[in-house]
Amino acid sequence: MLSLEASSQLNEVKSRSAGQPAASTRSGRNILHLDLDSFFVSVERLLDSRLQGKPVLIGGVTDRGVVAACSYEARAFGIHSAMPMRMARELCPEAIVIRGNSATYSKYSDIVTEIMQEEVPVLEKTSIDEFYADLTGMDRFFGCAKMADELRQKIIKETGLPNSFGLSINKTVSKVATGEAKPNNRLEIRSGEEKPFLAPLSVRKIPMVGEKTYQTLRNLGIQKIKTVQEMPQEMMQQVLGQHGSMIWKKANGVDNSPVIAYSERKSISTERTFDRDTTDVVKLKGIMLAMAENLAFQLRRGKKLTGCVTVKIRFSDFQTQTLQARIPYTSADHILIEKVMELFNKVYNRRLLVRLIGVRYSHLVGGGYQINLFEDSEEYINLYQAMDRIRERFGDRAVLRASGINARTIGRSNPFNGKRAPLLLANRRT
Ligand SMILES: [Mg+2]
Questions:
Q1: How far is the CA of 37 from the centre of ligand 1 (A)?
Q2: Fewer CB within 10 Å, N- or C-terminus of the chain?
Q3: What is the rounded distance in angstroms from the CA atom of residue 67 to the CA atom of residue 86?
């Protein structure tokens, strides 16, 4: 059992709930949100300790690049992610600029995932550096706060990665608590303390409030969460529709959404069965490529990244072969297409009639373009976004790679040399 005495012995404890009942007497759920602190920077510091305590920028290393991540020291200069690298360098000339490596970050993310999966009953991985766990019921054995503290320390001990957590009755309050605890700390919000905890914070801190909604709220004179708490729910709904209603609930510390177990099988896939079995390699490759590209678009549309690619071929004798490869988390066309084609070339080793081909992306986690920022130039990201906008408007097949017209010779020498990316996105090795 966790007693108040025990929790007060823990180091670095920020607790705003003194005098509240001990964990064992609380009712309802116990939801943990754990986030690795400035994750990319922390990994780079593990690899090079000279980066400790210094302003560090990660992203495209040329002037055309974008900041994908930065250290707290860099943030003090007003630098934030998604800022053009040139502007960041002007703000902080002494900053150390590093081209990120998504393979390395993916590896460390997987190590943390494994540690957490061993320890908690239900784990949800929402992005490369962010997790939810449902610890409900664990308090009967040793107390959720104690368990979360031990988990946090275990991650630090085994990986060297600083991390922070929030613990409360639901996901929203825990996520906000993590943000308040950072860096390298923890914060527990006892049951019943949700509203007073949220009240003094900016409405910007409610997880679903983006820049646009924030401006709308500011224009209405709403700055603190307390103001939303004091408004009737209907008023928020009138101003912002269904979205407003959700914001009102979150502002009041209400969130019943469950922790959804992270499954390695969580995937998206597509298959094509042929009317007539075929050995037409050019056709097969063209279809593989289109499937790889379409699924990559689906990933980006869902703000997801994949960590595993599978290619499947069924031959006319109904023998099915699949080949799978773990990859660094990505949603970038050119990386995924290259991997799919590589697997296809390995698995299509028999000149047999093919009945079905398929592609699957699994080990999905949340994450927008950020992870691709150091793999690609700003132009590439802009190009993807432009193509995706066309697809959103005119349908999935509106933009397709010129796979059928043998126009695959345009390469991409160095994405960071500042040259414009080719307009025809060509797969490099097929
Ligand atoms: Mg983080």
A1: 5
A2: N
A3: 9
